[in-house]
From TrEMBL:
Keywords: Isomerase, RNA-binding
GO MF annotations, alphabetized: RNA binding; rRNA pseudouridine synthase activity
UniProt-listed PANTHER family: PSEUDOURIDINE SYNTHASE FAMILY PROTEIN-RELATED, RNA-BINDING S4 DOMAIN-CONTAINING PROTEIN
Recorded family membership: Belongs to the pseudouridine synthase RsuA family.
Enzyme class: isomerase
One GO BP: enzyme-directed rRNA pseudouridine synthesis
UniProt xrefs under InterPro entries: PsdUridine_s_RsuA/RluB/E/F_cat (IPR042092), PsdUridine_synth_cat_dom_sf (IPR020103), PsdUridine_synth_RsuA/RluA (IPR006145), PsdUridine_synth_RsuA/RluB/E/F (IPR000748), PsdUridine_synth_RsuA/RluB_CS (IPR018496), RsuA_PseudoU_synthase (IPR050343), S4_RNA-bd (IPR002942), S4_RNA-bd_sf (IPR036986)
EC number: 5.4.99.-
Gene Ontology terms: cellular component: cytosol
Name of protein: Pseudouridine synthase
Pfam families the record matches: PseudoU_synth_2, S4
Presence of the UniProt keyword Chaperone in the record: no
Residue ranges of every copy of the RNA-binding S4 domain listed in the record: 2-60
């Protein structure tokens, strides 16, 4: 027997947290009976679970790594008809991105139909490092880098310490390339951190997520994660 929210998440309908919201709002039924209790348990093989009157069918979990180009929305749809990350992937499975990359940011993003897996990776208490390469205006001084390393106050809350180094600098052109590693995922965090020290981002790319990299991929290309990579991500998230 499993909790209903877990069954919904495993079916790729929503993350476990969103599934709980569906239950409390009365949008879920078991064998035709509406439920609102989060503790309700069902037999996934015997009981029929429905969301908004539509029975769910458990899909085989899929896990993708996409090299997101710039000018693409990290969503499954867009009301302005702009390209979204799912446009680059097979459409037979109901998939969605794990977290977000800004419209103007390129790089590594994960997608899945496994709500439980997505929820683990996105939960604030789990700390998976994400490494970005940023081209910025100006050349940061050592004191600027120390501010990032100690944390920057954003929205009245300090960021966790970042790892940062200058990869390349061009004082003639007044630009620098930085490598910065964080484990948080606040809105436009890297851009805002660099703006806060007076070095706005010109170009930003996420090159690494935990142990995963973009090796062998060009912008717009993807690959499926290997089973051992999925297992390692789960282990990395909860340690």
């Amino acid at each position: 027997m499993e909790r209903v929210q877990k069954v919904i998440a495993n079916a790729g309908i929503a993350s476990r947290r969103k599934a709980e919201e569906l239950i409390t709002k009365g949008r879920v039924s078991v064998n035709g009976v509406q439920i609102t209790e989060l503790g309700t348990k069902v037999d996934p093989m015997q009981d029929e679970v429905s969301v908004d009157g539509v029975p769910i069918h458990k899909e085989e979990p899929v896990y993708y790594l996409l090299y997101k180009p710039t000018g693409v929305i990290s969503s499954v749809s867009d009301d302005k008809n702009r390209k979204v990350v799912t446009d680059f992937l097979p459409t037979e499975s109901r998939i969605y991105p794990i977290g977000r990359l800004d419209y103007d940011t390129s790089g590594l993003i994960l997608l899945t139909n496994d709500g439980d897996f997505a929820n683990i990776l996105m939960h604030p208490k789990y700390r998976i490092n994400k490494t970005y390469v940023a081209k910025v205006e100006g050349v940061p001084e050592r004191e600027d880098l120390k501010k990032l390393q100690h944390g920057i106050k954003l929205d009245d809350r300090k960021t966790s310490p970042a790892k940062v180094k200058i990869v390349k600098q061009d004082r003639t052109k007044g630009t620098a390339i930085l490598e910065i590693t964080i484990h948080e995922g606040r809105n436009r965090q890297v851009r805002r951190m660099l703006e806060a020290i007076g070095h706005p981002v010109i170009k930003l790319k996420r090159e690494q997520y935990g142990f995963l990299t973009l090796h062998g991929l060009n912008a717009g290309e993807y690959r499926e994660l290997k089973p051992h990579e999925v297992k390692k991500l789960r282990e990395l998230a909860v340690t």
